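Reviewers of the previous submission asked for a worked example of the structure-prediction workflow described in the proposal, so we include one complete record here. The input consisted solely of the amino acid sequence. No template or homolog information was supplied to the procedure at any stage.
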Amino acid sequence: MKKKITFLSLFLTLFAVLTLFGFSKTVEAQQIGIDDQAGILEGTPSVLTEESQRLSEKTKAGVFVVTTTTNTQAPKDFAVDYLANKVGQGNNGIVLLIDMGQREIYIWATGNLKHYITPSRIDSILDVVQPQLSNGNYQQAIEGFYEQVNHYYQQGIPGGRQYSVNPNTGEVTFHRSFRPAYILIAVIAALISAGAFVVVLVSRYQLKLGARWNYEYQKNGALKLSKRSDTLVNSFITTRRIPRNNNSSGGGFSGGGGGSGGGRSF
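From that input alone, the workflow returned the following structure tokens.
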């Protein structure tokens, strides 16, 4: 009896530990941050932090805004490195870089958000953010950034592809499907190819459509057979190692292994 009680206690303890770790991983708050290195916000307004937190919880992604004055990197490279250091390479996240020294802004999204915040949508976001920055309305620019990201996330992933989203991690899974437009294009291409083949065949042999033509294959056909033997002298196998391209940085594109980015001057 004592052994049963001891075993049951160990089992319950192990279950409690595993449950605690599982729940802590599920409810762990997403990273957020307003890193005002340039000091243009005069402190971090609480409203910006609250909006960032809500957006992070909704998208299951890290949401960051960073301002700089002494950045020596290209804005794209700085944004890519900054977000990778915050959330990890390729994980869920987005950053808005406001480079006051070079007077440039750059947006970079990775993980699940690269599917929602595409380069064309980034251009639309910049259309909202850029005028506010040019007029010195820095807080309004950041608020506009949050609103636009939230707007496009609610709209869903563009392109008409079928996908599902993990509610706990935000991970996006695309499903294979045939789009009606692609099927129509394939049918049209097949009809054009077949029609072109018929036209070339008729014009080459001067055939009349609908007419019957018999070929006397027994009279005109001939078959000659001969023996031939080949001897294998030697064989060679050549191998080549192609290095993998692990450079996932870049802007103005949306790809499976990198991210989605874009920027402009203000």
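Residues 180-205 form the longest helix (26 residues). We consider this example representative of the routine output the project will generate in years two and three.
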